[in-house]
Structures are given as structure tokens and as C-alpha cells.
Amino acid sequence: MNSLNKIVKQGSLLNLKKNAHVHLMGICGTAMASLAGLLKDQGFKVTGSDSNPYPPMSTQLESLGIQIQKPYAKENLNPRPDFVIVGNVISANNPEAIELNHLQIPFCSLPQAMGEFIIADRDSYVVAGTHGKTTTTSIMSWICEMSNLNPGFLIGGIPKNFSQSFRSSKANTFVIEGDEYDTAYFDKVPKFIHYKPKNVILTSVEFDHADIYKDFQAVKDAFITLMKLIPENGNLVFWGDDENVSAVSQHCKIKNNFSYGFKSNNNFICEIIEESEGLTRFKVTHNQNLLGIFVTTLTGKYNILNATATIAMSFLNQLSFDGVQKAISTFAGVKRRQEILGEPNGILIIEDFAHHPTAVKQTIEAIQNKYKSRKVFSVFEPRSATSRRKVFQKDYVDAFTKSHEVILAEAFNTSALDEENRFSSAELISDLKKQDTKANVFASADAIVTYLKSNAKPTDVILIMSNGGFDGIYQKLLKELAG
Question: Is residue 446 part of a domain?
């Protein structure tokens, strides 16, 4: 371990020439793929490896001409790169990690590279929280763009306004999604610790990432650490409707520390005026003064909260109101976040990244509310490290109980967990049926497609929720329903 620490201390992108070869382990992660693009923009030769590449990040990398080597193997470090960036999916016994140590190649983690080399001394906007980070970061980036700040950004998804998840900064502003997941096997701290947080949005605080956090207090402690890192000349905007978020925010002692939400005791208050299938109109007030009325294509209360957070942060940074209003109205959304994939034979197919029970519940409510006259099939794959664990078994009952119909896949890679800690799709289905919720579990994506082809009718909506590839169900379903 001493030799490993020595390498980490020596590893710095600042010491590399622009044409140096940088290799990324775990390159198809959303943040890693974005960093790969940023490094290529900086003039580096970039390669990477992954075990299971899938869209949209694999296609983004292909469009950039960045080679993806699979699977992980020590041969991927031949020819020997000048520097390696290690993703948090990589364990110490990964064959490439072992070879990396053997060859004594300088390396660091993604967050270390971002903080030191990409963010550097720029004004940073860090969006943190259990939910809503990707959408909120995307909106904030678009607001900065419409305000002529020429921002750089790194987002855990692909915002449609930019068509890629990253951009090098052309000026002094960088917007980044501040993930609380740990940095790397050799640096067990939350990613956002490295992001030099100046302007911070805190959207929510719930228990998540059960694979690395032992309990809810450990999660709160991570966010408390972030609060203490915000400098005196920075800004904090936090969701004031939630007691856990409010409690965490109290550890931030800077002057510009403001809440937002629907409740009247917040500094920034949002109110939905009108909702339809296409648009939501809402207003935002600050200390009882109307900031403005905004129009957005976003759906659901949680998305209006996301937008309100960015409006509040923009106000604190004195960004042009016209630019903010225009950005909110023209924000086109994010791939895999309530993204409409198609409507074959009148059956609308929507994809969403939701996997935590709170996000699942909010997404279902938003879609069913948006398409009030249509039946919604809620299709879910338990795939994330948390959703495959039993810790949220009962919470998913509440998340799905108001669904028109639930279609559940078997949990992904169940063999990785013992039976005591493993999420049970069959148990969830049984509990939902006791609540008179129509629900079924299927052994494969193909079986789900077959069922939907027989049971979905024109005007129905199919909402697919997964944080992974779901065995290609999206294209399979589009093809079968169109046939």
C-alpha cells in the first residue's frame, strides 16, 4: 500500500505534455466518458477500458473516436500509457489495477483529475443531492450558456441542449454534477470533495448507495463535509421543504445560505400555476417579491424544484433574468430522463433513469399525471447497487402501489449478494398484489417485450426505468410494437 500511495501523490495531469497518452479504466461511466472527452479536447491521446459498454456513453465515445477496450485486461496497458485515471468501478484486484501497480504508471481518480486539471481556479457550480443532480446540473449549465458565461460542464447524462455530457470551459465558469459516491478504491471519500465547491445546490438527502454507506448518518456526514467546504464568498441553495436537507445545511456557516421549495417559510418559493401534457407554468418569489413566471416542458413537482434551485442560484450570482427565463423555457431535457423514445402504433415509450424508490415514485406520479387519460405500464429493472439490496424492499411497495400496472424484471446479477441481503422481485410483486396493484415479474427483457406486445394498446404509455442497458429492451420494444 505504501508504494501505491507514493504513485498517487506523484500522479498529476499537470505534469503531462498535451499529446501524452491517458488511459481511463471504467471509461463508460457517465462521468468517466465525459472526462475522456474533456481530455481529448485538451490535446491528449485518450483510450479506455470497460467490461460492459452501453449507450448513450458508449456511442458518445465512439463519436469522439475514442477506443473502448473490453474486457478489463492487463494487455490494455500495452503500449504503456503515460498516465491512468481509475474509475470508482475498479477494485484493487482488477487485472488492470494490478498491472498498473506493477508498471508503476502515475495515476489518479476522476474527481482528482477534475478538481486539479479541469475546474482549477474557475468559479464552480456543484450540484449535489440524492436525487435530481443530472437534470439540475443540465439546467444550470444551460442558464450559464444563455447568460453568455461560456461554461464548461461535466454532467452524469447527456443534456439535449448540448448533445454531449461535457464541454471544456471557454471562460471562468464550470458546472459539475457533485456525486456523493466514493472516489476510487485508493481514495474513499465522496467525489464532490475534490470539486472545489463555490456555488452549491443541495437538492435532497436520503439514504442511498448501500454498498458503500453503512447507514443514513454516514450519508448525511458526507453532505455535511461538503457544506463545510463552501468558501465565505460562495453560495448555498438548499431544498428547505425537507428536514434532513435543512439539518445538513445548518453546517454551512457562510452568509449566502438560502432555502427553496413549495413551503412558505423558504427564501425562494415556487408555485405551479398550470400543468398540461406539453408545458408547466410556475412562478418563483424571493422574500415575497415576484422574481418571475416561468414556462418549461419539464413535468413533475420534483422537476419544478430542480428548476427553482437554478433560478435561485442565478439570482444570487446576478445572472441576467432574461437569460434565465429563456433558458428555462428552452431547456430540452436530458437523455434517459423522461425521454420519449417513440410512439409505435400509438403506444408511447418513455425511458427514465429512476432507480431509488423515491425517484421511482416521483417519476410514476409525474408521468401518470401528465398523461391523465392514458394507461401507464411502469416497467422497472432493479439494477443499481442499492436497488438490488433488501434495504429498500418495502419502500418499493410504496413507490409502485399507485401504478396503473407494474412490470418488474428480475434483479440484475442477483448472485453477487447473499439471500439475506438480496432484493426479491417476487416478494415485491406479492406485496403489490395485496394492495390491489396489478403487477407481474418476468425473467427476461424479451419476456417483458412479448407481454407488452400482447397487452399494450394504442394510447397506452410504457415507462421504462433502469440505470443500465436493461438487455436492450428499448430498441426491442420499439421494433416489436411497430411490427
Answer: yes
Phi-psi region of 179 (alpha: psi -120 to 50; beta: other; left: phi over 0): beta
Could you tell me the pLDDT band of residue 411, with boundaries at 50, 70 and 90?
Answer: confident
Instruction: Give Cβ neighbours of residue 110 (< 8 Å, ≥ 6 apart).
Output: 31, 32, 35, 85, 86, 87, 88, 183, 184, 191
Q: Residue 147's domain is classified under what CATH number?
A: 3.40.1190.10
pTM of the model: 0.83
Query: What pLDDT does residue 161 have?
Result: 95
Q: Does residue 144 share a domain with residue 276?
A: yes
- State the Cα–Cα distance between residues 153 and 221, nearest whole angstrom: 26
pLDDT of residue 414: 64
Domain that holds residue 6: 2-110
Q: Which three cell numbers stand for residue 291?
A: 422574481
Beta bridge partners, 185, equal: none
Per-residue pLDDT of 269-284, as tens digits, reads: 999 999 887 799 999 9
* Among candidate residues 278, 299, 330, the one where a domain is terminated: 330
d(CA 236, CA 157): 23
Number of domains comprising the chain: 3
For 17-70, what is each residue's pLDDT tens digit?
889 999 999 999 888 998 999 999 989 999 999 998 877 788 889 989 998 999
Residue with the three cell numbers 457562510: 254
Beta-bridge partner residues of 160: none
Give yes or no: residues 343 and 311 share one domain: no
Give a yes or no: residue 273 inside a domain.
Answer: yes
> What cell numbers appear for 286 in the block?
424571493
| Domain end residue (candidates: 60, 85, 110) | 110
**Contact call for residues 366 and 453 (beta carbons, < 8 A):** no
DSSP E strands: which ranges in 338-411?
A: 339-342, 348-352, 376-380, 405-409
For residue 35, what is the domain's CATH number?
3.40.50.720
Identity of residue 108: C
* Contact criterion met (CB below 8 Å) for 149 and 200: no
